[in-house]
Amino acid sequence: MNLKPLKGQHHVSAITANARKNYDFYTQTLGMRLVKKTVNQDDTSMYHLFYADERGNPGTDLTFFEILNAGRTYRGTDSITCTFLRVPTDESLLYWKKRLEEHSVAHEDKDVANGRKVLFFEDFEGQRLALISDQQNEGVKGGQPWHKSPVPQEYGIIGLGPVMLTVSDLEPSVKMLTDVMGFRTNGTYTLNHDGENTVHVFETGEGGNGAEIHIVKRPDLPKQRPGRGSVHHVAFRVENEEELRQWVQKLKKLRIASSGFVERYYFKSIYFREPNGILFELATDGPGFEGDEPFEHLGEKLALPPYFENQREKIEANIKPLETKTT
Q1: DSSP codes joined into one string, 155-195
Q2: 240-299, pLDDT tens digit by residue?
Q3: Measured CA angle at 315 (ends 47, 318), to 5 deg
């Protein structure tokens, strides 16, 4: 089966216990645009919020499920431990360091990850994030920050960067990435932020910040117990539904347990776990977020796929109103 390489990150989905504070932080502090306010299609009692560039281009989405009673995260291994967000230049990081300080956001001094300058920080729930400069980057292009963002466009977040995994057993994860998913090895580096641990880099498609997975081996750590501030899964880009269905068949042929084809309306998906238990998703680049809302008003109303419209009254009654209309 001759499949095209995966194109890079599609989205990262994480957990919050407070949609209101989450919305304020990611739109007002980080300046991302809420491009879709919808519900978790597997549990419609919870919000699913999508923050991205101006129109939610694939590779720019950081999404959150609101789980109201989510407990704290007990950090550990076999988990996604950092989501990098791309900014245009090294100078952008100077702006961001000052902005994070002004907003009392916990952060660290600048570091270097795989030759690119980075700035690590955490949101109000301990979600581990890092801004990474695209100045030395080649590969998958970033998106376009929204012109109504409180962050100047020349410094704005332009998409997802590398996603960092921490695993107890390195080799099975590497085998999944390279032998099954078609990633290429791309060297190693040492990250001071992580206590001098070696980080293994893998890339796919055009490579670069938007198409890299970074893995740290930490058999000394306990297995993470997820909660608010943890990442649920990472999704990777495929071109279209035809290719996704080929992936469904490939995983089936290799006897890798998966969800099979899943309709998400805004994209199509398949879910499976890599050997250390981290949840992966493959998702199509389209149709995108403008099928049920015009560009100018993305994220302002509760959007439901057509197959949930007959449940709208019940769904709206089960979630707390969240005002997201921009002025």
Answers
A1: GS--EEEEEEEEES-HHHHHHIIIIIT--EEEEEEEEGGGT
A2: 999 999 999 999 999 999 999 999 999 999 999 999 999 999 999 999 999 999 999 999
A3: 75
Instruction: Determine contact, residues 167/173, Cβ cutoff 8 Å.
Output: yes
Report CA 38 to chain centroid distance, whole Å: 17
Tens of pLDDT, residues 128-149: 999 999 999 999 999 999 999 9
Does residue 325 lie within any of the structural domains? no
Distance in angstroms (rounded) separating the CA atoms of residues 206 and 281: 19
CATH number at residue 188: 3.10.180.10
Query: Residue 150: which domain range?
Result: 9-317
**3-state class (DSSP) for residue 222:** coil
78: nearest Cα among 202, 15, 168: 168
Residue 2 lies in a domain: no
At 168 the pLDDT is 98
CA gap 82, 60 in Å, rounded: 15
Residue 3 placed within a domain: no
4 domain-assigned: no
Per the structure, the count of domains in the chain is 1
